[in-house]
Every structure is written in structure tokens, then in C-alpha cells.
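Hello K.,

You asked for the raw outputs rather than the summary table, so here they are, unedited. I folded two proteins back to back in the same session to keep the settings identical. This is the first:
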Amino acid sequence: MTWLQAIVLGLVQGLTEFLPVSSSGHLRIVSEIWFGDDAGASFTAVTQLGTELAVLIYFARKIFRVVAAWFRGLRDATQRGVDYRLGWYVIIGTIPIGVLGYLLKDEIRTAARNLWLVATMLIVFSFVILAAEYVSSKYYAARQRPIDEVTARDAVVMGLAQCLALVPGVSRSGATSSAGLFLGLERRAAVELSFLFAIPAVTASGLFSLPDAFQTGGPGLHASGPQLLVATVIAFIVGYAAIAWLLDFVSKHSLNWFVGYRIIVGVTVLGLLSTGVISAT
């Protein structure tokens, strides 16, 4: 991997991690179109540590409050309030993707990165986002629940939805946020929860993938240690700005604004694949 490639891919990771457009899908597409090769699932997982650090810092007060309340609640039943329950919900919502991610790790790094699949998922899941927004506006317009009213059922459903993000092109934030909208949560609450649910899973995935990211054998682009570090730092800086922008955006607009973009990118990639301009693997 060249330094230009590392910088570009770090920017792509930071820009797309929190938007419902699939950062892993975009890294796969950009690395193939611009550089003619795949940066790999390990590079994606490691640079996601940068964007998750952005989440930790942006939501530091909330995370500290939830963690402190969770530990207090373990010792004292009278301290089991909203934050205590939210701590458990994050744990519950992380378990499904942790289990499936481990069991399917080989497929995630190989077959799931096929560009035919990535492009198709970009298009197909766009209609899931559309459906979620429709259900939210039609059936929950009068009463959408804030984050303080999240239940264990919400955590289970959103946790299962997060598993879809194992397939590049789906989008972690898109899957969990859409599930939240289907359940009647406020859009900002659904997006915030998608960020919180991602912290344990993405952090664990990034740390688990560190050894693989430094392997130089096999196909694909291989980044050096300094390149990985710079790409991760770039992803952190850009990702932090993206969090603030997205939370403000979803407070005023629906996720449908991203649907057209997803479809255009998906159709474009399918066209490039069909004409042999780029390779699927």
C-alpha cells in the first residue's frame, strides 16, 4: 500500500463509518476502483478503531455515566435506573454480532467482499431504510420513544440487526437505526444507540484483526504499521466531525436522503462489473 492509498482509505473510513452507506463497502469499492486491489477486511477493522475512539470521546460523559451506573446497579438494586439498564442493553445488543462475527470470520474476509454482493446490498438495503422511515412516520408519528425509554426487546432486535453489518454494503448504522425506527424510537435515539452498540463489537474486531493487518503474504494491498496508524488517526479526526454532523442532520431530516446515493453507487458498481472495468474479487 502506498501512502496516498492509506490516506485516501483513512478519509473514506472516517467519512462513511457513521453514515448509513456502509464504510466497509466503500473501502472495498474505493480500493478496487482507484487502486485496483482490495485493502482487506483487517485494514477495515483496524481503521475502525479510529472512528470508535471518536465515539468514545464524543459520548464520553454519557458512556462514563452508563458504565458507572451499571457497576453501581450490580452492587445495589436501588441504583438500577435508566443508565444501568442501558448498560445491559449495550451488552445484550453486542452478543449476536460477537458470536456470528467469530463464527463467520473467514467468510467475512473472503466471500463477503465480492463486489457483486457489496453493490447488491447497497441497493437492496436502501429499500429497508425507506421502509423503516415509512413505518416510523406513518405508525409512530404521534409518539416516538426517546433513548430513555429503550427496552430489552429493542436491544435484542437492534443487536440482531447489527449482525447484517457483517456483509459489506449493508451498513452498521443503517441496519441498527432502521431497526430502531421500526420499533418506534426517535430517529436521533436510534442513531445514538447504533453508535453505542457498535463500540464493543467494533473495538473487539479491530483488536482481533491487528495481527492479520500486519501480515504481508497473500493477495491484496498491505499497509505498514505507520500507514495503519496514520489511516486510523485520519479516520478518527474525520469520524468525530461526521458524528456531530449526522446527529444534527437526523434531528431535522430522514435517512431517506442517503437512499438515492446508495442506489447510485450500487448501480454504478454493478455497471462497472458487468462491463469488466473492475474485478469482483
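The second followed immediately with the same parameters:
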Amino acid sequence: MIDEGSHARKGTTGTTLMMVGRAHDAHFGFVNPPVYRGSTVLFGSFDEMAPGAAPYHYGRWGTPTTDGLCEAMAEIEHGAAALVMCSGLATIATVLQALASPGNRVLISRSSYAAARKFCDSALLRQGVFIDEFSLGDLVELAANLSEQTCAVYLDLPGSSNFDMCVLRDVVEIAGRVPVIVDNTWATPYFFNPLDHGASVVIHSMSKYIGGHSDSIVGAAVFASLEIYDRVKSMSRLTGQAVGADDANLALRGLRTLAVRMDRHFRSACDIASWLQDHPLIECVHYPPLPGDRGHTAWRTQYSGAGGTFTCLLDDG
């Protein structure tokens, strides 16, 4: 049997997911914000165009559609602010570039998303930023690799390929002054809110569960503080990060059904993982909700559910 219960508080309610990012009062009562497909913004005078005089100046810097998505993500992840970018990897890269300077060190978990590790080992390294690694199952190693030059601790929770797990508050406590960045794509804000556990930044590839229909590519970063938000916002503008109106609108649409979809993903994954665990061709299954899983205790104390992906090893290797 699999453990479908958790002592953790539900991350975000279905009612909240239905309401966030809509602001119908600003759109003549229409339930959903309009899709603003635009680059150029026109003004009647120079004074109207002056900084601070108008909310929008150029489509790449934001539209009512992308603002609605940012507001929604900040609310459901319990953050101070959010940014959306063209993909999950673009978001990871922008956040790390904003926090790291030549001579700094980024400490990344070995089981993090492979493309994130590749970005660190190639692009960041060429920029004079050094990379250290640690295992989610060995936080002593995390503490040993921290230094005065460490500018960020980065991890997927659970690990991207082997689904290892740790208690996030333990990581935050060890990291101390160093910002902790957590990729929360697997659980979504519906099942887990890393900022409530001390993280500084939460990353999402909204192409996955939040978009939910395999028809959009969007990434998001949600921030516990405006100080880090401002640094990442500046970097995102310097590197030309933007999200098209249609992709932003599809991500907003996906939020409306996230609760029912994640509940079903969780139930289905529980059924399949339990079945595979007893299959003669399967050596083992790595899925934190399994009572015998190495990360089960850490999962149960933090999460109210789980994503629908897991890893299994064939008996012949």
C-alpha cells in the first residue's frame, strides 16, 4: 500500500487557483484578463510616456496578461513577487546569473535538473563562477561545501531523476545567509510551498503541470523578498527575457484546473507505483509517497500530495 495522506498543510486551495490573476474589475467584468498581443505602446504626449507615468512601455517589459500571471504565481506560492520568463531553464539561468558574480560559488544538488547542472558547469563556469555539489541525502556534505564565496544553494525537491528527498528547513538552516533556490515543478504550489519553509526563490517550469496541456512553454520565479526580485528583474531585462501573451494566457488557463488534475495525477501515480513495486521485472521504485521509500518521512512532513512522475529500475539493470 502507498501512503496517500500527509500531515502537511495543503499548499494552495482549488478555490484560490480559480480566482488568482483575474482582476475582473479592471476588465469590465470579464472573468479572464484579455490577451494583450503587443510590442509597441502608444502615448498621447511625452509626459504620459515618462517613467512612472504609465504602467506599460513595451511588451517585453510586461503586459496586463503577463502581470496577471505574475500576480497569480506570487499569491499561490505565498511570495512577495514573481517573474515569468520564456522557459523553466531560462528562469533558472536568469536567477543564478543575477545572484552570482565572478569568484562566487554556486552549490547545487547532484540530482537537480540535468539542464540546470549543465548551465552551471558551462555558462556559469565560463563567467568565473565556481560550482560545488552536494547530495540531498547527505546534508553534512552541504555544510562542508559552504564557504564565504557561496552565493546560492540550488536544488530540485525531490531530485529530478532519482527522487531523493530532504527536509527543506534543514537545508535553509545550514545555508544560513545564503539564498536557497528550490525547483517546485514536481509538487506545484497545490501540494507544497517552499517559501513557507524558508526558501528564498521558487522555480517553476509551467510547461509541465501548471500549463497542463503540453501546448505552452513558460517559466516562473517567485521570491520571498523584493531585494532578490529586483536583482533578478534587472537581469531578466538585460537578457531580454519575455513571455508571449498566448503562452501566458495558457498558463493562466492551466491554473484553473490544477487542483483536480494534481489530485488525479497523485492518485494514478500511487496506483501505478504500488503495482510496479510488486512487479517481477522491477527491482525498485523511487517515489517519496511509498512508505518504504528513503524519502518518505521527509515527504510526509512537508507535502500534502505528490506529482505524478517517479523512477523505477528494471531488475536486469
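The mean pLDDT is 91.

Happy to rerun anything if the numbers look odd on your end.

Regards,
P.
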